[in-house]
Each structure stands twice: as C-alpha cells, then as structure tokens.
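#data-curation
PF: Archiving a pair of folding outputs for the training set. Convention for this channel: one message per protein, sequence first, structure tokens after, nothing in between. First:
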Amino acid sequence: MWFRRRDEADLILKMNTGSGKTVVGLVIAKSSLNEDKGPAVYLVPNTQLQEQVGITASELGIAWTDDPADPAFRQSEAVLVVPVHTMYNGRSRFRLEGHGNTVHVGTVIVDDAHACIPIIEDQFSTTLADTTPAYKGLLKRFNSVLKEQSLSGWTSITTGSETQAVPIPYWAWANELASSYALLNAVTETDSKDHQFKWPLMRNQLALCDVAFTSKEVEVRLPYPNLAVIPSFTNAARRIYMTATLADDGILVTKMGVDPNCVTRPIAPSSASDIGDRIILTPVETSRMVTIEDVKASAANWATSLNVVVIVPSRHRANEWQPYTSEIHEKTTIKAIVKRLNTQHVGLVVLIARYDGVDLPGDACRVLIIDGLPERYSPAELVEAAAIGGTEVMSSQQTQRIEQGMGRGVRATDDYCAVILLDPRLVGRLYSAADLHQLSPGTRAQYELSATFAKSGRSKPMSFFADAVDAFLARDSAWTNASKDAVEGLTYSSLSSVQPLLVAERDAFREACAERYTQAFELLQAQFSSISNARYRGWIKQRAASYLELVDPVKAREIQVKARIDNNYILKVPTSTAEPKLSHLGNQADAASAHLGQYAKPRDLEVVVDGILFDLVPSTDKNSHKRFEAALDIVGKMLGFNASRPDATTGIGPDNLWAIGQDSYWVIECKSEAVASQVSREYLEQLTHSADWFESQYDISQHPYLPLLIHPSRTPMWDAVPRQTARVMSFDLLAEFRIAVRGYITALCSTDSYRDPSEISKNLNHFGFAARDLANRWTQTFRAPAKR
C-alpha cells in the first residue's frame, strides 16, 4: 500500500503498538534511501524510544546514526534517528529559515506522532520564572492590564498566594510589542537556558503569541507550531506520520499541517485486531464497597511478585502513593527506572505525567494503574482550560492522552496487561469517550468487554476485582477467548472528511505568519456559524479577532465583544466587566429536574457526579481550586439553584454565586487549597470584598444574601474579624455535604426518578437541600477569634 502511494507528500500510517510499526517505519526510510529520496530522518518523542529504534535498526541491518552531522546521514547512507526536539529547537543543526543553508532532507518519518505533537508545541513556548528580569519587566508593563482582566488573579500574582493564571489581552500585547521583544531578546542563558532553544523559533511571530502570567512565571506561546521555521521538515519530499491510537487524526491537520486528504485516506492493515490483550477495570466507580485505599493495597500485594506501574498527573498525586512505594519517578529518572523495569522485578513504581513516550513490554508492567486525568499546568494551558474546558475539542485531546497512557503496558500483539482506572473524573471521561467513539477500535472493544464483566461487580468487595485481575494474568481461557472474540474483525477507523474548522485554523495561522492578517481573520470568520458549541465558538472568534487586531483594531474589538457573548470565560474588553444579574429559576424541584434531565441514563448521571464530587474534595494540587469552584457551580444547578462564577467570568466578585429561591442568594468564597488551622485576615477580607460586590450589583432590600466561606477551620486568627452576617462551611461539614449530594443522586438514579419533580422534591427535603433548610444544615457560625 505504501509503495503505491509513496510519492504523496504526506501519508499517515496507522498500526497498533506491537504490530511491527517501528520495523515498517525503518523499512520505509531505507526504501526511500534506495530510491534516492534521502537523506532520511526518523523522529521519535524522546531518547528512550530513540535507543529502542536504534536497536531495531541494527537488528534489521539498517545503518543508522544519531548525529545530524554524520556524513553517512548527509550522503543518504544511514538513517538519522533522533528525538523530535533535535530538529525543532532554536539552535537546530538543521538550520532555521533564513540562517544559511539548511540541511536537505528527502524523507521524514514521525513515529508516535501523537506523542511528538505536544513536544513540538512546547518548543514554540517559552516560560520565564518570576526571578528573571524579563518577568519583572513584563509584569511592570502589563500590571494594570492584568488587574483589569482579573482582580483576584492580579492579587494572587502580586502576593504570590495562588496559582491562578491571567492572560494578557492581544490588544495590550500588540501595543507593547517592541518593548516586550527587547525584554525577551535580552534573556541570558543564566536567566533561562531553555529560552535559548525556543526564542529563535518564535521571535519572528511574536505578535501572534498568547501570553499568560502566574505568580511564579510568565509564558509566551505561539498558538500553533510554525513548522516552516525548519525548512528541512516542510520541504521534505516525503513525510510519513505513524500513529497507533489516534481515533481522530484531525489534530495532525491543525498541529502538523498535514494535508487533509491524507487524513481521510490513512494507510492501515485490513484488520485492527493486531493488539495486545488488556482488561480495563474501574473498581472504585463500579462498586461502592471499594475504596481507593483498597485498590492501593491490592496494587502493593501484586507488586510483591509483579511489576506494577502507576501513572499520575502531578507530584502531589504521586505523594499519595508514598506509603506504598519509594519508587516515584519523573523526567530526570525515567530512563533509569524504565531500564530497571525491563530487566528485573522492581515492584510498585509511580511515574509522574508519563502518559506517552514510555515502553513497558512484557514483565516490565503486568498491572498498570492510571490515577488521574492528564492535567494542563502551564500558564497558557491553564487559561485555555478555563476558557474551553469541557468542550468536545478539549475532551477529545484528553481522551487521546488517557488512551496513550493505557497503552504503556502492552507493546506487542502477544503482550497482556491489566489496566485499572482510579480517578472518577478519568472514568467519566472514558465513559463519555466510548459513547462518542473517541477511542480507537481496539481500546473501545476491550473497554466495553471489561464494562460488561464489571456489571456483575456492583456492591462487590475489592477481592472480586483482584480475582479477575489474577485470572486474567494467569491467562485463564475464559478471559483470553473473550478478549480474542472482542477484537476479532475490527478495522481501523478513519475520517470520512476533515472538519472545515480544523483546516481553517491551520490555514489562518499560515496566513497570519505571512502577515496576511485580514485573510487569516476571514478564514476563521467563515466558520463561526458552523460551530455549535458556544464556548468554543467564542474561543475561535477571539483567535480571529487577535489576527484582525494587527490591521483593524476597532473591528477586532467589536468581534471580541461578540465572542464574550458566546463565552464569558475568555478575554474581556474594558466595557464588558458587568456580570449579568443571576435570576431565580422558580420552583426548586422543577429547576433540578430540568438540569438533571439532560442525562440520558441514570448511569450517565452517576458517572458525572462521581467526577464532580472528586473535584469537590479540598486539595493543594496545582489549579485544583478552579476544578473545585466549577464542581460547586454544577452541584448548585443539580440542587435546583441558578449558579454562576463571577470571579472566573469577570475577574471580580465571589468565586461562586447561588440564587437559592425566595429572592435570596449565597455569596461564596472557596479556599479549597487552604491548609491552615485558622482563618486568615486576608481570606475574610476577600469575603467582605465579595459581599461588597454583591451589594453594588443587587438591591439587598429585595435580595437578602449570605456570605459564605469554605475553609478548613471555623476559627479566625486573632486579627481577623468576619463580616457580621458571614458564615462558614468547614471541611468537615463539606465532607458531610458531599456524602449527602451522593445520597441525593443515588436515590434518584436507583429508581430512575431523576426527571420527576415530585421525587426530587422529596429527596431535596430528605437530604437537607431544600432552600429553606440550606443555611441551617450546611453552614456554621464562626467561632471566637484565636488568642494572640
């Protein structure tokens, strides 16, 4: 198939991991050299995979090198095997556009394309610490702008108290472009060695960059990789993208500039059943009898004789495994631990944020636990997540990373690995993905088989699931036969067409890079009406306006105002700070029924609520406070209240606002990342500011309100005085609140009555959620201040 189509500039090769993908890629590279289509470059995500590809090449007798200056590579006698960042960096030995003679390349193989994309994206982003002159200089220039965008965010940046990210509006960035360029261009290697490898890739397109601050760093990031900056890649006669798990290859169009026609016609084997065997279990979500600690105890037990690998999103989550293992590894120690796992029994190993780019075949990993959704932590990523989190675009990207993670332990068709999903939000994401067909055919079939088995595990202890894992690992014929039948006859999926928006995004960016800003705007403008999701439509309108700003600022601002109507989590113009007044929804049970009725099945609702309640647990994990506030917002709506997040949408006001009926409101400040045993003066002042905001927006003679602080403690510090009417929900009471919310939802789902207002009303009363009972049941008075 490839040979017949080998002269097409872009080709996608889809094969399951372990089905000989690396061998095929190397043979294609060698064949291209034989055809005088060299030199040939084989790109991989990291040095670990570079080493593995090199070993395979040697076994095949294919000459290879890891040195771009090697004459054997330059003369098309050997394949160059390097990590993708070797080609894409500001000091690339392939030479940047306009920097002398670039290295001629005839063929490029991109292995694990899905894993290479975020690495390439990161090369077009520079992050500078708050200790650097550039950070301080940029902060000084944009201080007032940050305050306009978010008062609470600006406060967190200037006090260093939280991890909130605040974006710089593109119009303010355009006004300070020359001075910002000077600051970034003056960054020394002492300030940031990393910057030296990224800045040259970005500096000619600085006007197109997104910029965001936190109290710790500032990030300057191109919205899409400008691949043309390395002509060796874009001018290659052949570019072959090898991918195993991407169900939707549209991301290759937006991020890699792949020809859309190539995406709809991938090269793939006739069958997709060439996949290793997996059982995918969700014990905590399946059975209320199973706790997270039960799963961890079972993992420790398996680890006495097997290698058990846990993938977590952050250091905070990794620390929760410390009672069970000391083998916790991140970037600097990954290579060594992977080598140990591949050669010996290690036991229980935790890997931080390694959802891709790690191979753990055979006994290197027999049980794989995914404990947490892959999170986004850079300033620009935090801004994007706040703006379009929950949209199908973001969900699809997250699903792909989850699937990549689940594939770490199965690296051949005869390999097998038990996979356990531990985070309720992760389970919910995968549950939705299965419905939306965002998973690859093999993973979807294995997940559905496991889900069918799991139905018999409701109300069963962890031993039920542990026995299933043991039987699977022992290659019990009941499992192996069922697994084989599940994947039999599967074929690889491909898109019948590429969404026009994806093509427009990439083409618009190319036009903007060529300084054809009006054309860039018009390409995106033509897609506005086709975007059904309002939040994503607002996001794309904002991107279009950012291009137009560089030639027509007045019209760009008009587009931005319209974008804010679609999505009030994006940049606000100075005239758009007013928060629409939150109205009451009428009968509480009717309102709750209307919200809950959007879920098609009781199980859909239960899975979503599990994830929401997980986010409603206080945590010091980075950016967890945003997830907490979003969860509280949804809980309010599930209880039949109207709810909003003024601080997130306007940058002023409380974290959460509930309209609870009888013209009454709750003004809520959430301190879910707090750990102090007393309430600080700063926190009570924030609650007072939010109360003042409410009084400036609403007639309190008609709309009584309750200022509420969610905090670990009820006791103010000696110098802290609560507002007269303020109350508190301690973390202990919050825990009871979560239990009651779960009970409320479980009761409605168990009888399939979550759409029935009369049943909802009964349960609202039973669990203390009726508006008249809410304050007495779920809030507390502050205690007397602590003694000095």
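PF: Second:
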Amino acid sequence: MNNKNSNGFAHRYSQWVIRWRWPIVILTIALAISAGSGIKNIAFEADYRVFFSDDNPQLQAFNALQRTYTKVDNILFTLAPHHDIDVFTPSTLAAVEQVTEQAWLLPFALRVDSISNFQHTEAEEDDLIVEDLVIDALNLDQAALDHIKAVALSEPALHKRLVANKGGVTGINITFQLPGKEMDEVPVAVSAARALAAEIEANYPIDVHLTGMVMMDNAFMESSIHDMSSLVPIMYLVIIIITFFLVRSFSATIGTVIIIVMSVITAMGLAGWLGVKLTPPSASAPTIIMTLVVADSIHILVTLLALMRSGTEKRAAIAESLRINLSPIFLTSITTAIGFLSLNFSDSPPFHDLGNITAIGVMAAFVYSVTFLPAFLAIMPLKVSQRGDRMTQAMDHLASVVIKRRKPILWSSIIVSLIILSFIPRIELNDDFVAYFDTSTEYRQAVDFTTAHLTGNYLLQYSLPAGSSNGVSDPEFLAELDAFTQWLRIQPEVKHVSTISDTFKRLNKNLHGDDNAWYKLPESRELAAQYLLLYELSLPYGLDLNNQLNVDKSSTQVIATLDNMTSIQLRDIARRGEQWLAKNTRNSHAIGVGPGIMFAYISERNITSMLGGTFVAVILISFIIMFALRSFKIGMLSLIPNLLPAGLAFGIWGLMVGQVNMAVSMVAGMSLGIVVDDTVHFLSKYLRARREQGMDAEAAVRHAFSSVGVAIVMTSVILVAGFMVLAQSTFGLNSQMALLTGIAIVMAIIADLLLLPALLMRLDTKKSTAKTDQQTIIKSSPQGDTT
C-alpha cells in the first residue's frame, strides 16, 4: 500500500470513528467485558516444575528418580528453642514429638522423619532392638537425655540433617504425596502446616521456620498473588499521576486509564479462556501491559493536543491525530507483539505465557487506542494546557544541539558504547532458586535461617545401579557406595550425605554386640541381605526404606545436602560426582539430579533457545520496518538503535552487578519489541518530511524532533516508571528482568534522540526530489505533524 492510499484510508477511518463515536464506545466496552469474563477461569500454578519444558533433560532425569524412590516434595519444620542451649530438653523434645505425631495427619503427608521417631538400633544380648529414639519426652531423666543427645549428634543419618552441629536446632521433615489433580493441593498442605507451626509456637518457647519444596511451590504462588495485588494498584497510580502531569488533561487521562483497564482485562480474560495458569513470570503481564498500553495513547494525545493548541477544532484535531498516528501505532504494536511472542522460544513455559498474554494485551491496546480513545475524546470535554509549547521548545533546542554537534555525538556514542559493551563478558549466570525470593518473604527468611543453623536447602541426588536384583547387598557394590559417600562428605560444599551404607555399618555393629570395631560394611552378600531383611521387618509403617532403595533392591539413592552456592558451583560439584563414579565404579555410573540442578542449567538452556527467538524477532521486525518505511537502508540503519540498548543494558549490568539469572535470556527479545516503537515513530516522521516536504536530512531531523520528540520522552518516562514498579517484585526473575529492561529503555531514548539523528545526517545524504516551500520546512507544526 503506497503512502497516498494509506493516508486516504486513515482519513476515511478517522472520520468514521468520529461519526460513530457512541456505538464505538459502547461496543468496545462490551467487547472488553465479554473477553474479560474469562478471568474467572484463571488459576495459580503452585509447582516449581512448570519452569521446565517436558523435554528438559534435567527434569526428565529428576522425574525418573522420583518414580523410583520416595518423592522429595517436603516441608521441613525447623525448631529453634528461645533460651535452651540445645534441643535435648524435655520441653523441646516434647514439641518435636507433638509435631512428629500431628504431621502424619497433615493433608497428603506420606512420611515423617525426626529425631524422635528415628529408628535407633542397638543390641540386647542376641536381639536387635529397633525403636523410636525419643519416647515420652516429658518424663525423661538427664541420663536418658544425654544418651539421646549422644546418639543424635553421632548418627550420620541425623547429624547436620535433622539436628544441628551442636544440637541447638532440630528439624522434622514431612514428605508429601501430592496427587496433582487439584490446584489447591499445595495451599491446603501449607495452610495445615502453618497452623501446626502456630500451635507449637503458642505452646512452647520455640520459633518454627518452614522450608522445603512444598513451601517453595507455595512461595511461587504467593509471589504471583502478591505482585498482582500490590504492584498493579501501584502501577495504576503511577500511570495516572505521570499521564496527567504530561498531558495536563483530565479527559485524556481518564481515557488512557480506561484503555489500560480494557486491555488488561481483555488479555487476562482471554488467557483464562485459553486455560493459562498463572506463575510469577506470567503474573507480571498486567503490569507490563499497563506500561506498554500508555505509549499508543500518548502518541495520539500529544499530536491531538498540539493541534488544538495551534487552533484546530477538537473533533478535527482528533481525526487528524488519528490519521497521522494510525500507521505508526499499528506498526509499533505489531513489532512489540513480535518481541514478546519471541518468548515462546524460551525453554521455560511460564515465559511463553508471559509473552503470549502481553502480545494479546498489546494488540488489544492498539484496537482500543484507535477506536475507543478517539471516540471517547470526541464525546468528552477536552481542555488544552499551553505547557506543551515549553516541552516542544525544549525538543527544538535539543534538535539544534544534536544537529550542530552531530559529529562529536556520533563518535562519542560509538566510543562509549564500545566501552560499555566490553563489560558484557563479566556477566555470570547464576540461577539460585532461593534467591528468586526477596529477603522480605517468609520462605526466604526461613531458608536463610535453616541454612545458617541446621542444614542446606539444595539436594544433589544420585541413583546408583547395583547391577542386579538385591544387588545392593553385594560387598563390592557396598564398598563402591561407601567410597562415594566418603568422597562426597569431604567436599567443601556438602553438609550432609544420606546413604544406605551407613545403615549397613550400624547394623553390623549392633549385631556384633555394639562393638565399635565392627562399624564397617558386612563382608558377605548373604550377611548383608540378612541384616537388611531383619531391619526392614522391624521398621514401623511409613518409615520403610523406599526413600533409599528401589523395589527390587537393584539400585540405591544417595542424597547430598549442599550449602548455599552459585549455579556454577552446583553444576561443578554435580559434574565432579559424575566423573568420580565413572572413574571409580564398575557399573554405578549416574548423573546428579535435583531441583537445584534443574535451575542451575536453566539459564544456559534458555539463552540457547532464546538466541533463536531473538534472531527470528530481529528478522521479522527489520523486514516489517523496511516494508513499512519503504527503505532498505533506513531499515538496516534502524537495527543500531533497536539492538544497541539491550547490549548496553547488559554491559552496564556486567559492570555494576555481574550476576544474572535466566531473566537475561528474555530481555533481548522483550526490549527489542519495546524500544523499536520510538525508533519507528522517529523514522516515520523523518521520512515523511524527506519524501513529502522535500526536506534535507538536517531539516527532517529537526522536523522529527518537533513532531514526535515530546511523545518519545513521555512514553519512555512511563515505560521506565512501569518497569521500575515491576522491579519492586518480591520475585527475583521479575525484578531482574524489569531492571534490565528499564535500563535498556533509558539507553534506547538516548540512542533515538542522539545517536539515530547523528547517523541519519551522516548516512542519509541523498537529496530529496520533492518540491516544497522552504518556509514550510522551517515552520513545521510542533508535535502536530499534519502532513
């Protein structure tokens, strides 16, 4: 479609909107309400596994292990006495007993492990006694308490797992079997656990901290709810204040807010109809949509108000503003949607939902901006402030500076950009799923306390094959298993190792009169098998060995509990463990798995997948810009201000912060779709002046500043404000993504108002063939390009 036909359509369309303003207002509101009715179907997903695609190798390995052994979906009660030196007092042990007994009654509870129900074994003449370590705590004398303390602090299965190094803190671990059929399973389990914790704190001088994978699942959900309930209202307030401050019009501000509401409920409603379940990333979509929606309205409003300030009648100004901005707004909406749709290349499904919901919201905003907004403004009274003239004068002054000093600006921009980009290699990927949560959250505080005083939060799990049914009793296998266990225990990152080899040693000692000299592995397969059978027959219901052995005893699970560490360190110790097994065992080759490992690899996988997504987005957006602007050279030149901001944001982050999580893989595609808007608006006004008014590059740059400079600044201010609000999220992925995107937007406005004009005047030297009056060139209408 050529420019003449495009202008003709835009003119006819603008007149049609003004004519049918009342039906348009009513129908668009009805459309938003209809689409928004799907919000009732939206639910929150409470499962950390949703961050991983079905073909994620770490997830597949973890699921395979979960199907073989007892699941590690757990809640860990960490009990910290207020005044006692250690937990080995009648009162504290009674609290442990109470939690242990009542925990079996929690919804979906499968297993409960604590120092009170630990199955302590000891010899009594020729018999093996297997019983709870703590029985009737309130009636224990000091000798019994000392015995319990000695056993707990020397038992490898308990020390640094369920009792602290010096006994000051203890833990009760509840394993859950969540059916996965209802969305409220996690909240129900957590609510019951919190009620039990509150009961213990009310009856004993003890603080209770709740951690574990079920609590983490719940923290993901609570973070989503928190962001939607707290950040969205703040965002509305910020937008209302900034929009009114910039446009100084009550009607224009109200119209903008209504469009925001309609766009958000349309996007979220359609997400509900499509069955999308909200996660922390996708829960940020309303805040992002609210931020992006304002841009369309601002461009229409700035041109409209400028025309009215110059004397144009309101409805004529509305029609003219719509005619001028219809094509650029459509173009920027498409490119923004493409940028967010590129998130579908991510290896993490929640970011697919974020991209799709935001893309729907952006396109809904376009529809409402070119239908509802002009129709609404045609109905409402509209007063004009003369403040816009001062802003236009500021843009004219900036244009003069850029034109006069274009060479220094160009070369200094290149030099500064190269310096900043050189810091990108300093960025280190680190996905610590605990650090995803702000220190103000209950879950993060509980994890930090537990890690500092009891045990680690990361589990590294290995399933070691023994080679045959009942092969775990083979002395050679047990020797390899024990050697691996000892190797793990001397690693600086490891806090605790859970292994069946310790049980074999303890049983061998017990059945040799509790002689410490026999604390070693059985020497024959038959003897080991007999020990194991005798022990299993003595265990109470719910405390079997399925957490360590598979059904036919052909493999065993070794679980290393790790200290806090970076994802690089986590990948490193997992890799070292795999290498040790490959080198030092016959057949027990295994890979380290666990939730921490899954998150440790997620950045690398996402960056790899998002490189393809960003490349596709760049190609599509560049093609659309070239086609719309009808210039291959200008389209290629636009890549510089479109791609550079994300690179500069990464460089600044590398200089100031250093570590990033998987949010970094999303920022390039997202920011590309956002920052391209201002570039398109600037270039469209520049080319309009070049082609239709016959201006040279210098005059066309001045015209672009005058026509769209104020709108670019306004939209950028609102975009940055919006992402800074999102940066207050208690969820680290959202806050880091928002900060990086906000930095990219700041870099984009600098690039669009300084670097881009300098590049245009340097490279676009072809003289225009159009004829125009020179006076018309100089007196181009400020912020009201009527050509």
